[in-house]
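User: Study the chain.
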Amino acid sequence: MKVILQKIPLRYSDLPLQQPLRWDIYDSEGILLMVKGEIIQNDAKKKTLIMQGCVRYVPKIKNRSSSQINPFTELQHIAHRLERLYHQFPQHYSLYHFPLASEQETLLSQLRHIANNIQSICHNYDNISLSIIHLAHYFEQHYTVYHPLHTAILCQLMAIRLGYSNSQQQALLHANLTCNIASIPHQTQLHQQQSPPDIYQRQKIRHHPEYSYRLLKKMGVTDTLWLNSILQHHEKLDGSGYPKKLVAKDILPEARLMAIADIYCAMVSPREYRAAMPIQTALQEILWYRYKKLDEQYVLTFIEYFGIYPPGSIVRLHNGDVAIVIQSHKDPLTPLVCSIYDEKDIPYQRPLIHQTRLNKYQIKTFIPFDKAFNLSLLWEAIRSV
């Protein structure tokens, strides 16, 4: 067994006043702030600790069973939990009627736990996390559930690459998971209808960032980065966004990142009235948007991270196999792939891992593909690498 330390973000309610601390407290960069047994004397000190992104470390035993966790299954479980959580918001909340503070804190606590789970999976299984974004049709949930999950994953992966602090990562995760929280029934209707949104629906869409912002603020959310990222995530650098028509200088970097994730994940996800956009077409669209609407540096980092064949891409190999890209490579033209169907489109009982630098397994082209395959078998093949 190997003992490692796991970082646990601390909330305002975790910090007792006038009582000895039960653990050492560190900032988000691992610098010791207070030692076990020390006492927080006043509320101002608590607020200062929260602003510093305070955390504690706990031992985590890493053994064989933990290494056998199937991240595909874990992300599907997270989607189920997120769906149950979302059902509680429209049933119990309006902008004018709220339950007890304890019930509000329970919902927010569940949300934070889901965010922590997503963060952990992205840290440990980055390629699989990215592949999930391109496999939306394998989720049982509606777009209203898997879209915020996908944008949260993508923002988390990009935040790691950009060197964001833990507090920034947490705020981004929370913002992505709740940016549509005040309009879920409306979003569900839009997803199920066979036609694009009408004028009335578009008007409601343009105001949903404000509705979600006000809802969460009334629930007691005080993290300004979380709240303002929601408020600004549909703004565009040229002032063509909504709801405030902000221009570049007024838009938070985190909201700029959310905008890229939201647009890309929407394009590569199917709707009732349209098919998913091919990955390479979506990447070209994102690249084009950088000239006026999106942050150019973030877009270029995004494109570099994705590469030519991002994980989750479905491709045809030169030997005729249908394969899924499972891992990027230093050479962007030769990712690691896993064959799931043979040249006659008969599924393999056990998926096969191939190096595409070999002539026989070179990638021939992207292909549209909506046939079923077993994600658990795919994970077994990946684990064997």
Observations:
- Residues 320 and 344 are 8 Å apart (CA to CA).
- Residues 314-383 form one domain.
- The two ends are 22 Å apart (CA to CA).
